[in-house]
């Protein structure tokens, strides 16, 4: 667990019932009948997320959440704070008792707010007894204790007891790892906490994970303060003598934390994984010696986003028992992974027992195989493929230990979202050079908008989009900023008979420009930021969200930008610098937040902007108009043109661009929304898990913009 509360890796401590022959136990070289895995984890920092969840796997790589990724143990019933984090699960030395320990903590109260852990015990993995151990109240000399983090349990065969170890911070000292023995009933600690390990560099060490391997105890942990990363310390004794190794074990140059190690069933291989928290993802590596690790990310998949958890090998009876208790028929119908299905947008209704499969353009409705995940002890009849050309199909779900249930599946082609994956802040351009439409979005799906690269997409019909790859990578291509790649915009200009493309983008809350001979790149950055400070008189807000507009009447180019304010300026002829004397604050009214979009139609200059916050379901688009690109903006009385459609599960519609079909008075609005249907349940995370959509935009006879109804079906492809 760490002070930033970011995602953590998951781990598995071997059930060391007899780790060496001298203890009277036989060392297990195989998995003793284990053929699956139980993964216990939590998911985030809100009240419901700080709770114990379960998932299962047959191979240790592909994991499926149980109970619909909802808690299997209620935090309020077991904790003193109302929340728990960092679950660690262990099979006991008797092979049939299970021990689970968690941090007793609610992150909303602060990262140095907890003093307790929770101990849980079960004989069936279903029913658990629990008790709270408050270290500060339980033991003397703990007056300056600030936090108790990430407890784990390991069996000590020499002592014949279960040892719990965790990290603690006292006063100004760094976090250190301590240990104590649990009592016989696993309801309390019977011994005073003793220091197990501290960093030789006097930096913090957290999230300890002990693995026994070839006669040695390997303690993996995260270092902080004196170099950040994953290291290990090794000892031939469980409770002392750990010597830190110099080597950092992560296989990436990105920042990492939350080291986690588990051993694969019937294998000599271990998995080391860690959280690449600036990228919002995990990296998985494999090793047979716990010294050399190879990246195996491509083999791993999960239908949930875990934080700091652990994995326990289980047998077939235990797997069957868990599925019978916590696996729901609707879950298997949510696992479709066929390429023709927009899998992120599958819609399930547990009350009506229905499933809707949104299909990509070109799907053959007469023969759809959803490729539902194969789950042990779960059967679907009839088997795929299914014929949806005449309507919905009924299937029966059989889960061993449950009554069969009937569900109705329907499917049809949906064009929204138009891109596969998470993208936002879309800019669209029609290129006279390529005779194609080009989309330039923010790469989304990264925690707190932490993406660092931009992609582009091309289409001839606004429906079928080709991924053109990365056109600008901040770490590689930009010298003055390396983070927060947001909200680009693009201009095509013909200079000396040749087309040039000018790509304006946000990086580190500044605005830059890159140039190319092609709308898909490669682009070369100008070498410095174009906009770095606020206009005169502006105190708040950010220098983000550029929009470039080339006036078709004069061919003069303008740049607009701002969050909390709207600013505009004339671009110089070189398109990579601005006329600083022309900078003007143009904020239309109090509804303006960000995302300016300017276009021209029938003598009017239209200004569109987004209201509210991109994390809000009420993020929406308003408009005004002017007689010139930098003139006073008139705001119509009814100027809301794009907003949520709660009845259809569409929320957070905003940050748009507009495209006109060349030679026609035919217009389309391109915008992002929360990912559907899960976005509305994600809290603030919905604001960086967004999707790009396109719908038609129409005008009244007086030039006012008609309200756009956001759709799931989207538009028909252009002819």
TrEMBL record:
The keyword Isomerase does not apply. Pfam families: Glyco_hydro_43 (PF04616). Keywords: Carbohydrate metabolism, Glycosidase, Hydrolase, Polysaccharide degradation, Xylan degradation. It comes from the Bacteria. InterPro entries: Glyco_hydro_43, Glyco_hydro_beta-prop_sf, Glycosyl_Hydrlase_43_Enz. CDD domains: GH43_Bt3655-like (cd08983), GH43_BT3675-like (cd18828). One of its GO terms (biological process) is xylan catabolic process. SUPFAM superfamilies: Arabinanase/levansucrase/invertase. This is Beta-xylosidase.
């Amino acid at each position: 667990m760490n002070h930033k509360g970011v995602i953590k890796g998951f781990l598995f401590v071997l059930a060391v019932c007899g780790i060496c022959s001298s203890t009277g136990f036989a060392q297990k070289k195989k998995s003793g009948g284990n053929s699956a895995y139980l993964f216990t984890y939590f998911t985030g920092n809100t009240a419901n997320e700080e709770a114990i969840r379960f998932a299962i796997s047959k191979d240790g790589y592909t994991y499926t959440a149980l109970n619909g990724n909802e808690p299997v143990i209620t935090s309020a019933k077991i904790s003193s704070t109302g929340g728990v984090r960092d679950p660690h699960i262990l099979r006991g030395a008797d092979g049939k008792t299970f021990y689970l320990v968690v941090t007793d903590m609610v992150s909303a109260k602060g990262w140095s707010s907890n003093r307790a852990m929770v101990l849980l015990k079960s004989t069936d993995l279903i029913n658990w007894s629990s008790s709270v151990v408050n270290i500060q109240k339980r033991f003397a000399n703990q007056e300056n204790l600030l936090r108790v983090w990430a407890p784990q349990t390991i069996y000590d065969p020499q002592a014949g007891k279960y040892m719990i170890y965790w990290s603690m911070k006292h006063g100004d000292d760094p976090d250190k790892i301590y240990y104590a023995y649990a009592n016989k009933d696993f309801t309390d600690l019977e011994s005073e906490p003793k220091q197990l390990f501290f960093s030789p560099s006097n930096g913090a060490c957290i999230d300890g994970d002990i693995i026994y391997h070839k006669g040695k105890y390997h303690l993996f942990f995260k270092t902080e303060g004196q170099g950040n990363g994953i290291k290990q310390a090794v000892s031939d004794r469980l409770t002392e003598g750990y010597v830190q190794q110099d080597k950092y074990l992560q296989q990436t140059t990105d920042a990492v934390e939350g080291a986690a190690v588990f051993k694969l069933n019937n294998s000599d291989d271990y998995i080391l994984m860690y959280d690449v928290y600036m990228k919002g993802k995990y990296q998985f590596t494999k090793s047979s010696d716990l010294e050399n690790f190879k990246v195996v990310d491509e083999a791993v998949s999960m239908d949930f986003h875990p934080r700091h958890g652990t994995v326990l090998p289980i047998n077939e009876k235990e797997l069957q028992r868990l599925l019978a208790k916590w696996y729901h028929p609707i879950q298997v119908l949510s696992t479709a992974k066929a390429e023709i299905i927009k899998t992120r947008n599958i819609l399930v209704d547990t009350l009506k027992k229905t499933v809707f499969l949104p299909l990509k353009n070109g799907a053959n409705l007469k023969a759809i195989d959803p490729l539902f995940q194969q789950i042990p002890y779960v059967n679907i009849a009839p088997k795929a493929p299914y014929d949806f050309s005449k309507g919905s199909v009924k299937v029966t779900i059989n889960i061993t230990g449950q009554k069969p249930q009937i569900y109705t599946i329907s499917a049809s082609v949906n064009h929204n979202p138009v891109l596969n994956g998470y993208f936002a802040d879309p800019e669209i351009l029609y290129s006279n050079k390529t005779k194609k439409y080009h989309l330039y979005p923010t790469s989304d799906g990264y925690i707190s908008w932490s993406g660092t690269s931009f992609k582009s997409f091309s289409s001839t019909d606004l429906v079928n989009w080709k991924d053109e790859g990365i056109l600008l990578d901040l770490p590689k291509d930009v010298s003055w900023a390396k983070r927060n790649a947001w909200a680009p915009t693009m201009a095509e200009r013909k200079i000396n008979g040749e087309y040039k493309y000018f790509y304006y983008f946000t990086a580190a809350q500044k605005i830059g420009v890159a140039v190319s001979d092609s709308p898909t790149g490669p682009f070369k950055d100008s070498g410095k930021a174009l906009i770095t400070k606020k206009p005169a008189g502006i105190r708040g807000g950010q220098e983000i969200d550029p929009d470039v507009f080339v006036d078709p009447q004069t061919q003069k180019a303008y740049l607009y930008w701002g969050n909390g304010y709207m600013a505009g300026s004339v671009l110089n002829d070189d398109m990579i610098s601005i006329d600083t004397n022309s900078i003007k604050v143009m904020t239309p009214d109090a509804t303006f937040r960000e995302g300016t979009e300017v276009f021209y139609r029938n003598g009017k200059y239209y200004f569109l902007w987004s209201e509210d916050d991109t994390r809000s379901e009420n993020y929406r688009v308003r408009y005004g108009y002017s007689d010139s690109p930098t003139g006073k903006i008139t705001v119509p009385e009814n100027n809301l043109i794009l907003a949520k459609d709660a009845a259809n599960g569409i929320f957070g519609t905003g940050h748009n661009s507009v495209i006109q079909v060349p030679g026609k008075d035919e217009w389309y609005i391109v915008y992002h929304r929360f990912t559907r249907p899960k976005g509305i349940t994600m809290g603030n995370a919905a604001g960086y898990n967004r999707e790009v959509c396109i719908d038609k935009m129409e005008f009244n006879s007086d030039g006012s913009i008609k309200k756009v109804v956001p759709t799931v079906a989207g538009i028909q492809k252009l002819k």
